[in-house]
Amino acid sequence: MSAELKVEHLRKVFSVGRPAIDDVSFRATAGEIVVLLGPSGCGKTTTLRCVAGLETPTSGEIAIGREAVSVPARGVLVPPRLRNIGMVFQSYAVWPHMTVRQNVTYPLRQRRVPRAEAGRKVDEVLALVGLSEYAERPVVSLSGGQMQRVALARSLVYQPQLLLLDEPLSNLDAKLRLRLRDDLRRIIKQTGVTALYVTHDQSEAVVLGDRIGVMRDGKLLQIAPPNEIYNRPADMFVANFTGASNALPGRLLARNGEFGTVETGGGNRLTAWLPPGVAAGSEVNVALRPENIRLGVQAAAEPNHFTARVTGQRYQGTQTIYELATLGGRLEALELGTNVRYPVGSDVEILLPPELCWAYSAQEAAPME
Amino acid sequence: MAADSTALGADIEPLTGSYEASQRSARLRAAGRWLWSAGLLVILGFLVVYPVSMLLLGALTNTNPVVDGFATFNLSLENFVTVLANPNVHLALINSLIACGGGTALAVVIGLGFSWIVVRTNTPCKGFIAAVSLVPLFVPPLVAAVAWSILASPKSGLLNTLLAGLGIDWRFDVYSMPGMIVIFGVYYAPYVYMFTASALRNMDPALEEAAEISGATALSTLLTVTFPLIAPAIISGMLLSFIVMLGIYGIPAVLGTPGDIPVLTTYIFKLTAWSPPLYSTAAAVAVILMTVTGFLVWLQHRVVSARSYITVAGKAFRPAVMNLGRWRYFTLGLAIVYLVIVVVLPTLALIVAAFRKFLFIRTMASLFDARQYSLIHFERLFDNPLALRSIVNTIEVGLITAVIGGILSFAIGYTIHRTRLSGRKSIDVISTLPVAIPGLVIGVAYLWAWIGLPGGLYGTIWILALAFVARFMPDTIKALSTSLLQIHRELEEAAWICGTRMLGTIRMIVLPLARPGVIAAMTLLFVLAIRELGSSLFLYTSETMVMAVLLLDYYEGGNVGITAAFSLVQTILLGVLIGFAHVLSRGGTDTGVGKAG
User: What is the mean pLDDT of chain B?
Assistant: First the structure.
């Protein structure tokens, strides 16, 4: 029922400007949830719309299951309605002139499913999304979160082989977003459908995705399981976009397998993980997440143990962000807990775990604007 | 702090007064507010309520106010019942419904078609098509009808001459029910277009994409999603065009009279033109027309105010555009054909008829024979002192209407939207009433209201101007309200806080900001007043003859050349005015400071 999605060398060029999608290839195995993550204008929605058949790619190939659905080179372009896919839109796109049940029954009516069977399927899927009591309501009387559940039910009721979700949570308010986010993964996994999910919100991507693909300027930079994206980002952009907001400039002195020694300002030496291709002697930027800096650790024997001066603090209730001057630069460190432990002006010992310090070649494009 | 206040406020007297003085001025202001509301209500009563009441009274009597005076006012339902049972009234009503119903159906096809072409396809020159779709709004219906009678009258129509020249046996006949329906449909399509184009433009394309993904074909999407979603817009444009057609006099007078197809409006006028004039019968038929219109206006209001599906997300969408391939030249061709039908052919016909000594054209070659052309019709037109007087009268009436109507509408609009004066609800309701009263009915109502009063308004150009002010008040207030509502309330409140009084605020803040809107509304009034035929018919005398009425006179007198020449004069006058208004409204958008917060 659920099918593999294969996207190969996909390109989409609009009439002006750089390509919206620039040679993107990835696969989603049957039943997998793949999330495309990136800032607005990175091409993630255009990719999704190409898969849906709402947009015509310039070149490349898209296959759903065993069927090639978009192959411009061969003139293959299966219309959306024959792709057997479901889609959830950012604006919900539930039909305001129909009730909840009419909305959800619509795809079954188009498929000429007998009335009794259709009724049963609609009841089932409404129960799945938690809207059983709302079936006969006009859809405009529902809240945004409920409308999006209707949209989800409508796109699942005919058991499509692939589900596409285009920023389905971004029109909802924060609290609803968290609830529906958790429900979405449960529901998708329960139906076992393959899903392609587009978002600009990294926390959504981590919770929902089996794998996350990070996009920028039409290119797919890295596609990997969430913990790999968070612990081994492929480049400075991925590190930065997923929250590694610290960057220390330095020079790579020596490489030793996956790790290397970086000389930073003030002559300090730092051990950091190196992606392939960074040569000794080159200028690097060391990226580091604020959460990964350990404060007040007295273990001088460990590598990457330094002293920092607290130059500022921002108390946020359940956590505190410290601004630190160290290694000839500035770092932000985050510590959980309601206590403020280090006053401004004091010195604090810090430990930067080597496997969580990532040194990227400085020639690479600068982090996000 | 103390140092600050001395530095800033050393020489400035604070705006305070004694408690007693402020109490006194508060009482004065309360009285002023009461007077203001009462004054507006009196004016509206005079302009709207009194004439309409007189019309209703007139329908319920069988005496003639001119002959018998008001002393023998015989109130009874009898007259009204007789009128309702009159087969001629039935015929006129049925003809009206057929002509307007058919015209509306055609208007929906054309209007919906063009809005789809403009919003949803990749047809070239879409801006041009959008403009063309609105052009008929500027064409006076009487002029359009005259031009089309020149083109397609069964015997001497230019198009029929052309067909004969080509050896084709078929003939156009615009003096027929189908002819009337086509002219109605073609010239009133913009009402449908305006509503449906904006509805299509504001629809989230994802709604249709969702249907497509759900497995619906393009046709099925159109029928189950697109049309139901814009149905309120379609229905509302449909009702509006029906209402307008129902109240039009010029087109059925020109096209229906030769073929003896009376409709309600032409029938009402015929009643007053008989000798002795049947004023009370006319009033009764006018009440019927007003009731039908009122019902439709109410219906349209309900459709518009019912929950609209369109503005769900309230953001700007980029509508999905359909690639028509080679068919896009076909859709462009449709727009060009439409332009030819509504503008090019009629204009050519008027020009040929106005400059040609004799309209009878035997062969195509004689059409291009320069010797056949002269200025004789214009000379004869301007030799007639009545023609010159009608032009002067028309401009005078237009100016009075524009100034009085503009000021009154501004006062009413401001009172309704920006004050909390008591009585503003009634002011709102009464000033909107004329929407449901066709121009012709206003004419009959004013006739009833003033004809019997000695030394009154009847026979002056003021009665025309006041009738026009009343008739176009809803449109003017609506146009003005838009520009009033764009001025952010805080701009006024800031002026109050600074110590300016209400009237000062209006003078120094509101008027300057609303000026482009006010000027545009006044120009609109001027244009409408110049075109207006229906209400003028009952209110003019030979001293107060206006262009539209004289034009119809010339037409009915059978002098096509002078009619065409006079139509051209009126069209040029209108064109200049509309161009002037366009330039003014352009200037308005440049000074958009502080609008729409």
Answer: 83
Q: Are residues A296 and A147 in the same domain?
A: no
How high is the mean pLDDT of chain A?
Answer: 90
Q: Are residues A290 and A355 in the same domain?
A: yes
Strands A319-326 and A283-288: unpaired
d(CA B476, CA B406): 7
Which chain B residues touch A140 with a CB distance below 8 Å?
A: 307, 309, 312
**Cβ neighbour number for residue B491 with a 10 Å cutoff:** 16
Residue B588 pLDDT > 50? no
State the Cα–Cα distance between residues B582 and B229, nearest whole angstrom: 33
Query: Binning pLDDT at 50, 70 and 90, where does residue B593 land?
Result: very low
Residues A227 and A334 in one domain: no
Q: Are residues A250 and A232 in the same domain?
A: no
Tally helices (H) and strands (E) across chain B.
30, 0
A137 inside domain: yes
Chosen from B204, B214, B225 to mutate, greatest number of chain A CBs within 10 A: B214
Q: For residue B278, what pLDDT is reported?
A: 82
Last residue of a domain, one of A201, A236, A271: A236
Residue A279 included in any domain: yes
pLDDT tens digits for range B181-226: 999 999 999 999 988 988 888 888 899 999 999 999 888 998 999 9
Same domain? A139 vs A226? yes
A107 in reach of chain B (CB within 8 A): yes
Q: Compare CB distances from B228 to A54, A97, A140 and report the shortest one's residue.
A: A97
Same domain for A252 and A173: no
CATH (one of 3.40.50.2000, 1.20.140.10, 1.10.3720.10, 1.10.8.60) for B86-362: 1.10.3720.10
CATH H-level superfamily of B35-74+375-597: MetI-like (1.10.3720.10)
**Which of A181, A215, A236 is the last residue in one of the domains?**
A236
Tens digits of residue pLDDT in B237-268: 999 899 999 999 999 999 998 889 999 999 99
The pLDDT, as a whole number, for residue B5 is 46
Q: How many helices (H) and strands (E) does chain A have?
A: 8, 21
| Contact list, A94 vs chain B (CB under 8 Å) | 210
Ranges A137-141, A148-152, B361-365, B475-479: which has the least confidence: B361-365
A160 within domain boundaries: yes
Q: Measured between beta carbons, which residues in chain B are less than 8 angstroms from residue A106?
A: 211, 214, 216, 224
pLDDT tens sequence across B66-117: 555 555 566 778 778 888 888 999 999 999 999 999 999 999 999 999 999 9
CB-CB under 8 Å, A96 with B309: yes
Q: Do A89 and B313 touch (CB under 8 A)?
A: no
> Which tokens go with B464?
């025309």
Give the domain CATH number at A353: 2.40.50.140
Q: Where in chain B is the domain with CATH 1.10.3720.10?
A: 35-74+375-597, 86-362
Query: How many other C-beta atoms lie within 10 A of the C-beta of residue A42?
Result: 24
Domain boundaries, position A284: 246-361
Does A95 contact B at CB distance below 8 Å?
Answer: yes
Confidence of residue B596 (pLDDT cuts 50, 70, 90): very low
Q: Is the ipTM of this complex over 0.95?
A: no
Strand partners, A312: A323
Instruction: Find which of B203, B204, B209, B213 to mutate to test the A interface (most A CBs within 10 Å of its CB).
Output: B213
Is A54 in the B-facing interface, judged by CB distances under 8 Å?
Answer: yes
Q: pLDDT tens digit string along A246-273?
A: 999 999 998 888 899 998 877 888 899 9
CA distances from B356 to B153, B346, B373, B382, B487 (A): 17, 15, 4, 17, 53
What residues have CB less than 8 Å from B179, skipping those under 6 apart? B148, B152, B172, B173, B255, B259
Backbone angles phi, psi at A2, to 5 degrees: -80, 145
Q: Judge whether A369 lies within some domain.
A: no
Residues above pLDDT 70, as percent of chain B: 88
CA of B317: which chain A residue's CA is closest?
A91
